[in-house]
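Quick board copy: two proteins, each given as sequence then tokens.
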Amino acid sequence: FSASKKEIAWLKIDIEGFEVQALEGARRLFQERRVRVAIVESLHMWKDGGIEAFRRLSFLFQFGYWVRCL
């Protein structure tokens, strides 16, 4: 990124098993509210009905984001 902190309109993540880690790695982007929408495509994250994924993604709430399972 350049010195000016640009907004990211859409962040799409589909990396077969490491989606949560990618979101956690992008924590600063979310903390700075630079990502408007993040789409995470994953089937295996929802094996337990999404309970573990929801728990691990709940850090996004503290930055004002919503988590939706579709």
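And the next:
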Amino acid sequence: RARTVGEINDHWSQVDVDFADTEIFAQEICGFGPAVYVVHPPELIDAVIRRLKASQAAQGNATDAVQEIR
């Protein structure tokens, strides 16, 4: 599914991926936890943030990773 893959540094790679459904892809991304950082498109970023915040609320606790999002 990746169109391009590039190394950013020793710890991060950039992967460009085509997807059809923003909500389904956001759910998949959230499964990777802090190992993934979404930079584009804005609607995917928003969908990921919305899911992480909902997960945080459902667990009833705050995590540093989710608190730092926007």
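Board note added afterward: The chain has three helices and two strands.
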